[in-house]
Amino acid sequence: MEMARTLTRWAYCLPPSLPPSSSCSFSLTRRTLQIRTFSSKITIGSNSGEDYLHLTNDELVKQCNVTTFKVSGPGGQHRNKRESAVRITHVPTGIVAQAVEDRSQHKNRASALDRLRTLLSLKVRKTIDLDGYQPPQELLQILPKVSTIRGSDVGSQIGPNNSKFALGVQSLLDLIYAVEGSVSDAAKLLGLSTGALSRLLLSDDSLRMAVNDFRTSKGMRPLR
Questions:
Q1: How many CB atoms within 10 Å of residue 190?
Q2: Which of 16, 97, 129, 222 is deepest in the core (most CB within 10 A)?
Q3: Is 205 part of a structural domain of the chain?
């Protein structure tokens, strides 16, 4: 089927009427960013030709609404009296990221922008054609060295702590969507065994959840 050979880019958008204070909550660990939203829906991306993750930080910020706000902190002289927390809303997709953990607004802004890139990689899909498919460099970089199509010039495998990991995740999820959630089909295109690709998909919690959400929507069993 034609639909099985192409991937429509989707964006998970928050309703514009959702109050800023209730749009998202974040649970952070060393390796992953877990996102919980009170309300969300899937819509076709209005700017399907644009690749947000390849924009510079300045270019990406120009597409966003950036707001600051206060968060409750310890009492006494250490109470946070400044609006150091930062919330960034990506206008084209409605995706929201925020950072509140640092007393420095500058550091929170940088953290929120990094989280926005992670969310864009997880939530925004791009169209790819499976005919003569060649994985992009950023995808090759996150593949394990056992991949038969991963040349020696690619370098060491990068993981979630690398700033380029989001680019690889985006390309990997684009492929997973293109093959309708079939790990075995994706593995063949990446020169991996099904088991090796499954281990990669399960190595990061955010990536695992994104894949399993899609597989569940297709009536497939989640990866474990």
A1: 23
A2: 97
A3: yes
